[in-house]
Amino acid sequence: MKVTAILHGSDGRARGVKVQDLMNGQEYEVKAKAVINATGIFVDSIMEMDVPTHEHMVKPSQGVHLVLDKSFLQSDYAIMIPKTDDGRVLFAVPWHDKVVVGTTDTLREHPELEPQALESEIEFILNTAGRYLTRKPQRSDVLSVFAGLRPLAAPKKEGKSTKEISRSHKIFVSENKLITITAGVFSLNLSMFVLASVVSRGLRFFLFAWLIWRYGAPIKVFIDKYFNILAIAFTVLLIGSFVAVKYLIQ
Ligand SMILES: Cc1cc2nc3c(=O)[nH]c(=O)nc-3n(C[C@H](O)[C@H](O)[C@H](O)COP(=O)(O)OP(=O)(O)OC[C@H]3O[C@@H](n4cnc5c(N)ncnc54)[C@H](O)[C@@H]3O)c2cc1C
Questions:
Q1: Which DSSP state fits 155?
Q2: How far is the C-alpha of 106 from the C-alpha of 162, rounded, in Å?
Q3: Separation of first and last alpha carbons in the chain
Q4: Among 14, 52, 158, 190, which residue's Cβ finds the most Cβ atoms within 10 Å?
């Protein structure tokens, strides 16, 4: 299903999408309370459907990986070359009976559905990896080539190289309340989220355990005495948070 248009309500807010089934061309309208645009390098085209004059948010950065025979890396461990000629990191990772080597970081002007690896990128990987593998791979040793585009946040200043552009996530809410989220690195944001969540849960647990350990008996007396008031306060808080969430996504 491909999103082909954003549907707006009478209040101007994004209230759904028009999609097309690419197998048979059939079009559908999908209504929603809120629309979240998480289409990677294509976020700008969706944002344009919402506000045609919007400023571009993403700059695609091409990354290429090569697949070589495993004999080029006689180890079950991956290697990382932290500093290459142009300052980028290169990996060689064992994968079944092959080894995957990459990557590059090449700024591209436009998002493309089928990105193509540049010969200069393939040469860069072969030359750099050749210094660390069992022997220098030739062009004819390349079994397969993968190319992908990372959705990097567009820099404010022109002329920045991709490795200088922020890879952190960006969240943007348009004037019509279309929510757009994008990130140049998936795992970093995920690990930060997991870390934050684990730390906050851990802190809450220790605070709770300390309160029970320190004031166990008085807390029990307090709960027995004010049970009705506490129950009412809890119910009000619960209903209040449901109303707040409902209001926020309207
Ligand atoms: C070569 C390379 C190496 C990378 N290495 C790493 C790494 O080591 N660690 C790491 O954390 N990250 C890495 N990344 C980055 C990571 O892949 C991206 O940050 C992540 O995929 C972004 O997730 P996303 O959900 O925003 O977009 P995507 O994963 O691109 O998903 C967007 C989705 O939207 C869909 N879509 C687009 N347009 C439409 C439309 N009009 N209608 C309907 N659907 C649509 C697409 O089909 C796709 O399914 C790498 C990227 C590349 C290219």
A1: P
A2: 7
A3: 25
A4: 14
pLDDT at 115 over 80: yes
Instruction: Name the percent of the chain in helix, strand, coil, to the closest 5.
Output: 40, 25, 35
Residue 189, pLDDT score: 53
The Å distance, Cα 148 to ligand 1 centre, comes to 9
- 0.90 cut: is pTM over it? no
| pLDDT tens track for 203-245 | 777 788 788 777 888 877 887 888 888 888 888 888 887 777 6
Supply the mean pLDDT for the chain.
Answer: 86
Segment (H or E) for 107: strand 106-107
Report whether 64 contacts 145 (CB < 8 A): yes
Helix (H, G, I), strand (E, B) or coil at 239: helix
Residue partners of 10: CB distance under 8 A and separation at least 6: none
Are 72 and 133 in contact by the 8 Å Cβ rule? The answer is yes
Of all protein residues, the one whose alpha carbon is nearest to atom 15 of ligand 1 is 185
Cα–Cα distance between 130 and 122 in angstroms, integer? 12
Distance 151 CA to ligand 1 centre (A): 7
pLDDT band at 156 (very low <50, low <70, confident <90, very high): low
